[in-house]
Amino acid sequence: MYLLATIVILSYLIGSIPTSILITRWVKGVDIRNYGSGNAGGTNVFRVVGWKYGILTIILDALKGAIAVIFIARLHYGNMPFENITPFDDFTLIQIIAGVSAVVGHIWTIFAGFRGGKGIATALGFMLTLCTIDMLLALVVFMIVVLITKYISLGSILAAVSVPVILVVRENVFGVDIPGYNLILPFTIGVVGLLIFTHRKNVARLIKGTENKIHFSKKKNSK
Questions:
Q1: 98, 130, 151, 209: which is deepest, by most CB within 10 A?
Q2: How far apart are the C-alpha atoms of 98 and 15, rounded to whole Å?
């Protein structure tokens, strides 16, 4: 139990690294949470600092989830501290726990007053290891939506929603035997629900037509 708790804490701390805050302080000497939408995430870095640093932020945030799953989860050895009733083997379940802990850390970072980002990139990083094909297809959805609408928030939301849809289609329409499908599906739905919750303000702005569009050029800071 102590080893699992250590993995959860370390994964949370890795997820808590406030990438966007560090990058904007380094580049502009400002706190990203005081500019643009006020969110400490890659999308807001796009708006405030420019698309290059926005992409860098997203990549680093995704790496946090991947590091938790690929490296920190490997600290586990021996038997599980509880009965594993899932269709996953013990190590895969530990990876899921580590990945979720990293996402929670990103959203509620202990290093920045529990005001972090919205978890999309970090969730992408760890879920790529869980359902790689489905996440890659979701990335295509994200890119298409962003290129057409210029709304990163809308692209993120629709990409997240597309993951369980893609799972259902691949399993039930194309007959692909996805290992652990009956657990992965509700799990991804739960993650999608969390990500939509963190984007609730964006959803409200999208409905009102006041959500900011992204531009692939450096823009002046605006509060």
A1: 98
A2: 10
Asked if 203 contacts 196 with a C-beta cutoff of 8 angstroms, the reply is yes
Choose between 183 and 60: higher pLDDT: 60
Q: Which of 109, 154, 142, 146 is nearest to 19 (CA)?
A: 109
Measure the CA–CA gap between 64 and 193, rounded to whole angstroms: 21
In whole angstroms, give the CA distance from residue 14 to residue 61. Answer: 10
| pTM of the entire predicted model | 0.82
Domain spans of the chain, in order of start: 2-208
For 41, the 3-state DSSP assignment is coil
Euclidean distance between the first and final Cα of the chain, in Å? 46
CA distances from 187 to 5, 110, 115, 151, 184 (A): 21, 25, 25, 26, 5
**Residue 180: CB atoms within 10 Å:** 17
Q: What length is written for the chain?
A: 223
What are 66-112's pLDDT values in tens digits?
Answer: 999 999 999 988 777 777 776 677 888 888 899 999 999 999 999 99
